[in-house]
Design brief:
By secondary structure, the chain is of the alpha/beta class. The protein has one domain: Hexapeptide repeat proteins (UDP N-Acetylglucosamine Acyltransferase, domain 1), CATH 2.160.10.10. It has two helices and 20 strands. The strands form three sheets. Strands 1, 2, 4, 6, 8, 9, 11, 14 and 17 form a nine-stranded parallel beta sheet that branches. The longest helix has 24 residues. The termini are far apart. InterPro entries: Hexapep, Transf_Hexapept/Carb_Anhydrase, Trimer_LpxA-like_sf. This is Gamma carbonic anhydrase family protein.
């Protein structure tokens, strides 16, 4: 659902896919090839939200802010299932893990990786290419070229997903039996360990 609020209508590039069970409200600008999953809430009611090209905001994520603040998810940011971005700015090509929480005025530098369930407190500044984990969050190491290459490849799957959804997603009635000719899903990504061995 896309909602106008106080005269602000979200601006969404036609190549991006917003799931019908997501809610995008007010002063929100979404660039090209962005995926927003079901259950996501992107609320530009108290401030602006910019989601740049190639980002993904996965299922049940919340993006909001303290009144009067505006935030940006830079190009290629990857926001994992259930994460909360509350008034924080996310650098280019970052990965925010599942159920992580990033609080007001925090700044995540480019190409950072935030572990699942991490809590980044308000106003924490994280330099480029850092691995951040824990509650409260701590920087544990630098991100290698190999890890960024692996992350970028994973994000590319989400950048291709909107076009595939437009082409093939449709509401249907369920089957009652497994058909004999049920197709096999393609394997189009690998774990970091598999990536290292390649």
């Amino acid at each position: 659902m896309i909602y106008e609020f106080k005269g602000f209508i979200p601006v969404i590039h036609e190549s991006s896919f917003i799931h019908p069970q997501a809610a995008v409200t007010g002063n929100v600008i979404i660039g090209k090839d962005v995926y927003v999953g079901p259950g996501a809430a992107i609320r530009g009611d108290w401030g602006g939200i910019v989601i740049e090209d190639g980002c993904n905001v996965q299922e049940n994520c919340t993006i909001h802010m303290f009144p009067g603040k505006s935030i940006t998810l830079k190009k290629g940011a990857h926001i994992g299932h259930g994460a909360i971005i509350h008034g924080a700015n996310i650098g280019a090509n970052c990965l925010v893990g599942m159920n992580a929480v990033i609080m007001d005025d925090a700044e995540l530098g480019d190409e950072c990786i935030v572990g699942a369930l991490t809590f980044i407190k308000a106003e924490m500044k994280i330099p480029n290419r850092k691995m951040v984990v824990g509650n409260p969050a701590v920087i544990v190491k630098d991100i290698s070229d190999e890890m960024i290459a692996w992350k970028t490849k994973g994000t590319q799957l989400y950048q291709q997903l909107p076009a595939a959804l437009y082409e093939t997603l449709k509401a249907v009635e369920p089957l009652r039996e497994i058909p004999k000719d049920r197709p096999v899903q393609e394997t189009n990504y690998m774990t970091l360990e598999e990536f290292r061995k390649k």
